[in-house]
Amino acid sequence: MNVYKIAVIAGDGIGPEVINEGVKVLNKVAELAGDFSFEFTYFPWGCEYYLEHGKMLPDDGMEQLKKFEAVYLGAVGYPGVPDHISLRELLLKIRKQFDQYVNVRPVKLLQGAPCPLKDVTRDQIDMVVIRENSEGEYAGAGDWLFKGKPEEVVLQTGVFSRKGTERIIRYAYELARKTGRTLTSISKANALNYSMVFWDQVFEEVGQEYPDVETHSYLVDAASMFFVKQPERFQIVVTSNLFGDIITDLGAAIAGGMGLAAGANLNPERVYPSMFEPIHGSAPDIAHQGIANPLAALWSASQILDFFGHENWGAKVLDVIEQVMVDKKTLTPDMGGVSSTEEVGNEVVALLSALKTSQV
Ligand SMILES: NC(=O)c1ccc[n+]([C@@H]2O[C@H](COP(=O)([O-])OP(=O)(O)OC[C@H]3O[C@@H](n4cnc5c(N)ncnc54)[C@H](O)[C@@H]3O)[C@@H](O)[C@H]2O)c1
């Protein structure tokens, strides 16, 4: 019997509310599967912790997390603590120190999910965006010269190492090969004459090893247009940190909105834990009311199941999320329903149990 050890950082605002449902669903899946289980360890880190201790996590926090295979994160950030502190000192610290250089963002329009595009069917939006998660434009390199003077200059340097660029592109090629899907690189070599020329070159070089993978390349501006006009062009997408950040929000917008979007931060070599999170924030405006939509956190739970090799169960959780949206009986207010966070979680658990019973 495999026991998967997961560190839970439920975080702030609606974080704990949606993560509770994710934990409930994962435990249910384990019970139904019968051959694995989860061991969850909770860490009370986040803004409340910061206000009490002056830091987002204890000094040995990263050491504590290292012992786990995965981290399940709700959301961090709350009024009273500057966002750059909550983001940099917890979320980005984990991504960076655990070398979670692959950000996987599924952009898939499930049946029943709200879609702002006209006449788009479910099969037209079904892609996975692989975003570089460790360097690029978010490396934090640069300078601020002559601060406050008329000749003030700021420099924000994009860092593209050969190792960092090759490994993310290779990961995407491997995924495209494994799934038999096309691979599209999104860059901007016409304007970014060092970083993106290099990116395109590496995309081509690595591609020599994958003659079986059909590839496409787009400039990020054209890609943004096609995300809206012809999303069916994209299957597996690979892009840099900044472009990935932006186009995955666009992806979330066309495929059900923030209440549904999930992301995985992977350290593929599994030297360090990988981290799974709904991509929405802590939503202080609706926190503690029990009305947050837990579906994005449940999609993250399905990514956790994939990560541990239980893709069949991951797919079942997605099927059930889809069923909940098609039924429209148990939805939170952001999706036009009147149900609570807990009721949606309970419905997913009930549908999973029914699925199992009907298969027996
Ligand atoms: N990954 C993270 O931890 C993360 C991501 C984004 C923002 N944040 C932090 O969260 C705080 C709030 O940020 P924000 O308001 O810009 O973004 P947000 O995602 O928290 O909220 C934006 C809007 O979407 C709604 N919303 C978000 N998630 C929802 C859900 N599951 N169900 C129903 N409605 C939902 C909110 O009510 C709000 O109106 C800030 O402190 C920010 O730094 C954290």
From TrEMBL:
Keywords: Manganese, Metal-binding, NAD, Oxidoreductase. This is D-malate dehydrogenase (decarboxylating). Transmembrane segments: none annotated. It is an enzyme of class 1 (oxidoreductase). It comes from the Bacteria. Residues 5-348 form the Isopropylmalate dehydrogenase-like domain. InterPro entries: ICDH/IPMDH, IsoCit/isopropylmalate_DH_CS, IsoPropMal-DH-like_dom, TTC_DH. One of its GO terms (molecular function) is tartrate dehydrogenase activity. The keyword Protein biosynthesis does not apply. Its cofactor is Mn(2+); Mg(2+). It catalyses: (R)-malate + NAD(+) = pyruvate + CO2 + NADH. The keyword Magnesium does not apply. NCBIfam families: PRK03437.1, TTC. Pfam families: Iso_dh (PF00180). Belongs to the isocitrate and isopropylmalate dehydrogenases family. Its EC number is 1.1.1.83.
